[in-house]
Amino acid sequence: MENGAVPRVGVCVFLVKGKAVLLGRRRSSIGHSTFALPGGHLEFGESFEECGSRELKEETGLDIAQVELLTVTNNLFLEEPKPSHYVTVFMRAVLEDPQQVPQNLEPHKCDGWDWYDWDNLPKPLFGPLEKMVQDGFDPFPIG
Ligand code: 8DG
Ligand code: MG
Ligand code: MG
């Protein structure tokens, strides 16, 4: 591309609780008002696990455990006002303390966090997540 844009790395987390995942409605320009996973940009020197844990803490106040890599997808947002390209790393995790409740710590970026049953997800989902669901992706551990 001639505008100097480069692909960036996003890390997001399927925080699972029973058959539910944590989602929030985005207020960010990309995917505005769609439901997405908590997550953000990989910072220089970070592992995927560190990034997932940090973003969860910053966005929801939650402490997570058993952070594991699930998959990676390539996401183009070329029709956006600011065209962008993300390599998105999807992690899975559980709550360190199952009693802990999510807080909306970045209200300018998200309308609020809640648990949604995987079999009854809210609409519309953020594009990359919608595609994974349509492709039959299942973030839950076997068994
Ligand atoms: P930061 O400043 O905290 O690092 O970034 P952020 O404001 O939290 O970034 P973000 O947009 O929440 O996440 C970075 C990118 O990751 C996002 O623009 C596109 C990509 N991404 C996906 N799917 C998902 C998803 O389900 N949730 C989130 N949060 N990001 C996703 O491709
Ligand atoms: Mg963030
Ligand atoms: Mg984010």
From TrEMBL:
GO terms for cellular component: cytosol. The keyword Manganese applies. Coiled coil: none annotated. Pfam families: NUDIX. One of its GO terms (biological process) is dGTP catabolic process. Keywords: Hydrolase, Magnesium, Manganese, Metal-binding. InterPro entries: Nudix_hydrolase, NUDIX_hydrolase-like_dom_sf, NUDIX_hydrolase_dom. Residues 6-138 form the Nudix hydrolase domain. One of its GO terms (molecular function) is metal ion binding. Its cofactor is Mn(2+); Mg(2+). Belongs to the Nudix hydrolase family. This is Nudix hydrolase domain-containing protein. It comes from Lithocarpus litseifolius.
